[in-house]
Every structure is written in C-alpha cells, then in structure tokens.
Amino acid sequence: MIKISLDYLLQFFLKGTHMIRSILNRLCCVTTALVFYTAMIPQPARAEIITTKAFAQSHFSANPRTRINELLARNDVQSELMRYGVSSVEAKSRIDALSDSEVKDLALNFDKQIAAGDGLGTVIGAIILVFVVLLLTDILGLTKVFPFTRSVR
After folding, report:
1. How many alpha carbons lie under 13 Å from residue 104 in its C-beta half-sphere?
2. 64 with 103: CB under 8 angstroms?
3. Residue 95 contacts residue 69 (beta carbons within 8 Å)
4. Are 106 and 98 within 8 A, CB to CB?
5. Residue 140 contacts by C-beta under 8 Å, 6 or more apart in sequence?
6. Which residue, among 131, 140, 136, has the nearest Cα to 151 in the 3D structure?
7. Exposed, middle or buried: residue 68 (CB in 10 Å: 0-12, 13-18, 19+)?
8. How far apart are CA 92 and CA 96, in angstroms?
C-alpha cells in the first residue's frame, strides 16, 4: 500500500487550483476581448435614393379610411375584435362614423398607439431591476443600502 502524505496532497491540489485559475483568467480575458472586438466591427449600411412619391405610397395610403379598413381586414385584428365582442361590421361602421380629421389622426398615429396597457409593467420591471442591482452591490460590499444583507468582504 502506498502512503501519500497529506502535505503532498495539499500541494498537488493547490498547484492544480492555481493552474485552473490561471487558465480561467486567460479564457475570460480572451472572451472579453473577442466580445469587444465583435461589437466594434462596423455593420454595412444599405442606402438607396427613393422618390417622395414612392415613400408616401409605401407608408401612407391615399385615403386614411382605406388604411384603417385594410388593417381591420386582417385576420389577427378580426380575431382580437371578436375576443372583445366587436364584430368586424360593427367596427367598420364605427370607423365610418368618425369625422375626416379623426380618421386622419387615427391613421397617422396608429403605430404609436399603446397596444397593451399603460406601461405599468415597464415601471415594475425597472423597479425590480434597480432592487436587484442594489441588492447585488450590497452583497458584494460596494454599498450599504439594505440592513438585512451581509457583505462578502
């Protein structure tokens, strides 16, 4: 039976730990350098000259009512309307009842309309993010915001 001293084992494992840390440090440095390098590579830009008429036709229809009716004709919009209990015929009649200025405002600002709520989820998400960042900095010992955390240092 071979007797291996405890000192020899400790030296072996400590030397191995130093070597692993050295390899991991180098790997982290190389990975970080590659990430920064790929982030700095310029992306090719595509540009072409188009006429004003072509731009207007691609983004706006001649008649705002036509644009809104085209949107109402989509299957996903009709299914959402049905989910809220509004038939496509009823929605079309409501659009037809709007004045020309109201239809124009609706058509121009249609892409800017809030689709889901009033932004409460975004505010809650931001608050949670700030809390997590402050909690991590407290745990790492960089700040002292929360009394219930213990610093690693």
Report:
1. 4
2. yes
3. yes
4. yes
5. 151, 152, 153
6. 140
7. buried
8. 6
Q: Which residue intervals of the chain are DSSP H helices? A: 6-40, 52-59, 64-72, 75-83, 88-97, 100-108, 120-139
pLDDT tens-digit profile of 48-99? 888 877 776 666 556 778 878 888 888 888 888 888 888 888 888 888 888 8
For residue range 115-133, list pLDDT tens digits in order: 555 677 788 889 999 999 9
- The token duo for 12 is 């072996």
Measured distance CA(110)–CA(104) in Å, rounded? 10
**Looking at this protein, which amino acid is placed at residue 116?**
A
pLDDT band at 100 (very low <50, low <70, confident <90, very high): confident
Separation of alpha carbons 77 and 68, rounded Å: 11
Evaluated on CA atoms 96, 97, 103, 109, the torsion sign reads negative
Backbone angles phi, psi at 138, to 5 degrees: -65, -45
Cα distance between residue 82 and residue 68, in whole Å:
17
